[in-house]
């Protein structure tokens, strides 16, 4: 809160400036008019397609696409080509239900199939989705109950599920699994390090120790990176070689750190030869549209061309998390591959031979159907968190928990647009507090809260007591507008007929991993605290044109 005396002095200064004679102001104005135009802080928004609710989409409808192919927080992509179909999933961290699988037939347009994991395992990091002998597997690094990391597996005979309960493979201290079948017919996981462990034939247990597999290529010492951190090994067999595609340089930190490197070997057991073109992809300037590019997989397109899928932060919008990018590659005469997309600032030709399917889904929700996992997730829920929820009385009712957004386990909804409006009706039943948020984690959020007698303001991850406003409330419709990281709130007590502008605007561009850790994104959230229940009704989402 601003000190009152300093606030008064600032007002006096403003008043003095306003009272200056016109002659004292006009020369400065004239100089400003004649000065060179200011350089914008961020590059202008590229031209994206617009889909459902105005959400941006990659497909431009003219045979080209503009990255990202899946916007918003979709990090560490793992992709499976299954005949004419492609399936992809991502790290889901502390969101449950989690591990949402997406489907495409052209590598550009994607829609969710559904969540594969409902049982909380703690934070979920980079996965691997694969298919072996007709069965689908997802290998999951997780640390339940805050204990050490281990690799878990879930499996299904259909991609839609049902998926098995998680099975602990007892591969401790490892993350970022990458599955491959060796020339010996045996199954292996490569993990961070870069290390290797053999699996049993059913893929559900370790069949040997974790052992060193490959010493990754090192970048020059004067490059500005976060740290070495070899991780995310993804493997494929192409021609006479096994190829291993790895991330080094650190996941976040400086924008020039994260990068993609490659190596190859005629045996899964090595020796591995560094690619002479390393790094395959790397951000080299903070002026590029995509920062910290890395964690790649290779995949063959529908028409036989080849592509690389990886993640990156959007310039100026780390709040959206790491987004999924698609870049063309070419195989060279010497058996290596090169990236062909440049800095991804311009539209690229779509993959050949694919059939465009639907893209994305509407976020607006009348709560008549269960959209948990695909759209709504609890942040870091307890094992019995879903017991708080029921669909009833024309909405979604959530029993109160805790005393504020920090301990209420908010319900969150990921977004992928630079600018948007989100609007919802909250009915307060009993001694409940409900509200709308932009939520990163319990230490990083902003929002408005409503009790039966008070409007509350949350900024800097805490309530501002001086901003409380007395108000009798049984139901409120509240709107959050995020315009390029500047947040405005409106609320209405008559169902949206008349609106009140909240007196505080908030700037949230600094709420991201480099400040708060956790590799997360800033999501729209709704919370229910206190001793009563909050009923959610008529959630509406609309993307806005961004600068």
Automatic annotation (TrEMBL):
Signal peptide: 1-30
Pfam families: GH43_C2, Glyco_hydro_43
Sequence ranges assigned to domain Beta-xylosidase C-terminal Concanavalin A-like in this UniProt record: 364-533
Highest taxon of source: Bacteria
InterPro entries in alphabetical order: ConA-like_dom_sf, GH43_C2, Glyco_hydro_43, Glyco_hydro_beta-prop_sf, Glycosyl_Hydrlase_43, TAT_signal
UniProt entry keywords in alphabetical sequence: Glycosidase, Hydrolase, Signal
Protein family according to the UniProt entry: Belongs to the glycosyl hydrolase 43 family.
Name of the featured protein: Family 43 glycosylhydrolase
């Amino acid at each position: 809160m601003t000190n009152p005396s300093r606030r008064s002095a600032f007002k006096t200064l403003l008043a003095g400036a306003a009272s200056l004679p016109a002659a004292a102001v006009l020369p400065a104005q004239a100089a400003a008019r004649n000065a060179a135009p200011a350089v914008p802080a961020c590059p202008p928004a590229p031209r994206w397609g617009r889909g459902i609710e105005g959400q941006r989409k990659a497909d431009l409808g003219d045979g080209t696409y503009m990255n990202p192919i899946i916007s918003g927080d979709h990090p560490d992509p793992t992709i499976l080509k299954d005949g004419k179909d492609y399936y992809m999933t991502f790290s889901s961290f502390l969101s449950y239900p989690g591990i949402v699988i997406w489907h495409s037939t052209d590598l550009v347009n994607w829609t969710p199939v559904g969540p594969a994991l409902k049982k909380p395992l703690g934070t979920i990091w980079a996965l691997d989705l694969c298919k072996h002998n007709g069965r689908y597997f997802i290998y999951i690094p997780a640390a339940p109950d805050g204990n050490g990391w281990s690799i878990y597996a879930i499996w299904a005979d259909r991609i839609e599920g049902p998926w098995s309960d998680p099975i602990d493979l007892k591969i401790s201290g490892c993350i970022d699994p990458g599955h491959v079948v060796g020339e010996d017919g045996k199954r292996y996981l490569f993990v961070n390090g870069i290390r290797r462990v053999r699996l049993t034939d059913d893929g559900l247990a370790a069949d040997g120790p974790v052992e060193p597999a490959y010493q990754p290529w090192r970048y020059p010492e004067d490059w500005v990176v976060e740290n070495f951190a070899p991780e995310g090994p993804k493997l494929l067999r192409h021609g006479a070689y096994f190829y291993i595609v790895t991330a080094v340089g650190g996941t976040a930190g400086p924008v020039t750190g994260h990068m993609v490197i490659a190596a190859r070997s005629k045996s899964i057991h090595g020796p591995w030869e560094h690619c002479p073109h390393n790094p395959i992809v790397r951000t080299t300037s903070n002026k590029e549209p995509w920062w910290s590019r890395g964690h790649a997989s290779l995949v063959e397109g529908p028409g036989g061309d080849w592509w690389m899928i990886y993640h990156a932060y959007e310039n100026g919008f780390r709040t959206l998390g790491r987004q999924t990018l698609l870049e063309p590659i070419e195989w060279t005469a010497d058996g290596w591959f090169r990236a062909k997309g440049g800095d991804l600032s311009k539209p690229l030709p779509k993959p050949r031979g694919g059939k465009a399917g639907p893209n994305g889904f509407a976020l607006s929700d009348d709560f008549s159907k269960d959209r948990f996992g695909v759209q709504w997730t609890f942040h870091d829920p307890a094992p019995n968190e879903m017991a708080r929820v029921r669909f009833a009385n024309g909405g979604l009712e959530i029993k109160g928990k805790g005393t504020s957004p920090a301990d209420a386990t908010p319900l969150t909804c990921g977004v992928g647009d630079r600018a948007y409006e989100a609007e919802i009706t909250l009915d307060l039943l009993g001694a409940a507090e409900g509200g709308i948020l932009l939520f990163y984690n319990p230490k990083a959020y902003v929002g408005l809260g409503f009790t039966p007698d008070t409007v509350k303001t949350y900024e800097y991850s805490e309530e501002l007591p001086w901003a409380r406003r007395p108000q009798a409330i049984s139901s409120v419709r509240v709107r959050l507008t995020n315009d390029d990281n500047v947040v405005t709130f409106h609320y209405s007590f008559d169902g949206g007929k008349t609106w009140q502008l909240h007196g505080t605007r908030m700037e949230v561009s600094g709420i991201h991993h480099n400040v708060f850790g956790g590799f997360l994104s800033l999501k729209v959230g709704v919370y229910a605290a206190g001793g009563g229940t909050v009923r959610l009704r008529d959630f509406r989402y609309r993307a806005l044109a961004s600068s």
